[in-house]
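Purpose: get a first structural picture of the assembly so the mutagenesis plan has something to point at.
Setup: two entries, given in the order below. No constraints added.
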Amino acid sequence: MNLTKEDVLHLAELARLELTADELEETEKDLHKILGYVERLQKIDAGGVEAASMPPKSEGWRKDVALGCDEYTRELILTNFPDKKTDLLKTPGVFETPKK
Amino acid sequence: MIMTELNKLTIAAAREKLDAREISSEELTLACLEQTRSLNGALNAFIETYDDEAMKAARAADKRRDQGERLGVMDGIPLALKDNLLNQGHVVTSGSKILAGHVSAYDATVVRKLKDQGTVLIGRANMDEFAMGSSTEHSAYGPTKHPRDPERVPGGSSGGSAVAVAAEMALAALGSDTGGSIRQPAALCGIVGLKPTYGRVSRYGLMAMASSLDQIGPMTKTAEDAALLLQAIQGEDKADQTTSDALPFIPDWRENLAGIRIGLPRQAWGGGMHAEVRSSVEAAIDKLKSRGAEVKEVDLPYAEEALAVYYVIMPCEVSANLSRFDGMRYGLRKDNLPLFETYARSRAEGFGPEARRRILLGTFALSRGYYDAYYVQAKRVQTLIREAYTQAFKEVDYLITPTAPNPAFRIGEKTSDPLTMYLEDVFTVGVNVAGLPAVSIPAGLADGLPVGMQIIGKHFDEAGILAVAKAYEEA
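Result (structure tokens, whole complex):
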């Protein structure tokens, strides 16, 4: 599989990763090598073989419900916010371009 | 015994001396912290040590003992944690710049269990960023150095944990193993590293790399210590749905190895390993024979494909798991940019080159048009690999290979070509792909550096592989 620079740029966009020109070149080379190695899998006849999956729990999965936390845990979560207003997380606006 | 040498003790020996009141946890902990103070500048095993807190925990353990109380086998024992295990109120970073200063909001289940048993946690050990690497060179906090030769790597990704134990800064450590990250550094540093069966130990609070492969395990000086530490951390956990309700691990030591069948997978012993790695592990196998084990070659089809399967499945899970680091709720955020650029620049500056490489690789393998050919095909071959192990285990009880193809290599030797670094894991990844337990134990030298022998067992047969390991230690 030969990925072009455009392919790698598209992947970087999907993965939300900025790449410098040097990094782009480097990544293109590295992915070429790694994909060249893993492509050996495609020569294996695995038709009809079930894809591996996690065995299900005998008593079923845990219910998807929110659990509360104590005040200390809550405070620690708040300390990790990159930006906040009182106890609310502040994020960049979705439709805004910030003024420099 | 000189008090400053207490850091050389095993967990088992320290436990005995503590219980016999020959030593105190305070003396034991101080010995470890002093060793760390004198060596950590050169070796960079720890990113941070918890000196005051550790001494406080040690004194509390001594006080309990004075009152005739003991919380568990680990009570008062100094231990190192890998920097990807959450420790409430402490900074834990997974060796990454993107989490610099990130404070754990809660304890990982294993950390909680250790605290509940009175374990003295002395610091967080360096690692390859998000556990991606085989040399501990991919840490945002500088490389960790090999204790016998600081120009060489200790292996990785749990290199800091391995060096903390090998250089006697802690009695034992916890690591995590996704493709060999406990066993390979244990082999390169000359200690014991146990990767438990997938599902044996809760991953709750372990920063995820590849969730279907990750497993936490002990890094210790002896097989017996690995057993003690595994007992302290194992068990089903409501907070990790992939933990198993299998019967708990209980050590089952053996007088000898009579009747034990050991298989050497033909596919692993072909070529591609250092000559002295081969001769050292062969000599170790002869010792197992001398203790009564029956050894034969076995066929393990698809063993050579495990690395390729791993390098598809793992990056796919990495790209998904690391998507949470978007600069929004925690971690590094580059400010004053439009939303897309905030994501893209925060991630570009926060992640190192290996993390970025694997994210892009996984993004590719999961993308439309390639998903079936890469991800689904890898998951199918994973099934074939699992079946191959099941077949092999009908013929023999354990499989043995070298842990790593080479002894510790030089810093910088393998960083320019990621594929040569990946090949370091060629003997270890199959175990993760199949979800099996395996232990690496010291088995001689190559170029004067430690070599590891890997013993692989059936699912949940940690008791068996550790019994073989201990029989070898005693041979």
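The domain at 3-233 of chain B is CATH 3.90.1300.10 (Amidase signature (AS) enzymes).
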